[in-house]
Amino acid sequence: MCMYCKNDTMKESTTTHVVNYKGCIIVVKNVPCEECEQCGEKFYTDETAGHLEEIVNSAKKLMQEISVIDYAKATYAA
Predict the structure, then answer these.
(1) In terms of pLDDT, which residue wins out, 16 or 76?
(2) What is the C-alpha separation between 56 and 63, in angstroms, rounded?
(3) pLDDT digit string (tens) for 51-75?
(4) How far is it, in rounded angstroms, from Cα 33 to Cα 41?
(5) Is the pLDDT assigned to residue 32 strictly greater than 50?
(6) pLDDT grade for 78, boundaries at 50, 70 and 90
(7) Which of 11, 54, 52, 4 lies closest to 30, judged by CA?
């Protein structure tokens, strides 16, 4: 169920997750999510959120001005 509009119809989708960290932009594309069919709000599973956190933390260590990472191609310790 959508936390915003209370609609109970969700669909599998993908989205782009963007983080602004100390003047650096981290973009993670093709992130799997559930999308509300009524309002379009997107939600991550706990597993996806954990993977995203690991990807972003790895990118922070590189401290590049802009990092673009494909979620499906990013490696992490499960």
Answers:
(1) 16
(2) 11
(3) 999 999 999 888 778 888 899 888 6
(4) 10
(5) yes
(6) very low
(7) 52
| pLDDT above 80 (res 11) | yes
Q: How many CB atoms lie within 10 A of CB 51?
A: 19
Q: How many residues does the chain have?
A: 78
Amino acid at 42: K
* 75 Cβ contact partners less than 8 Å away, ≥ 6 residues apart: none
Q: Which of 49, 51, 61, 50 is nearest to 21 (CA)?
A: 61
Helices (H), the chain: 46-62
Residue 40: DSSP 8-state: -
C-alpha span between 21 and 23 (Å, rounded): 6
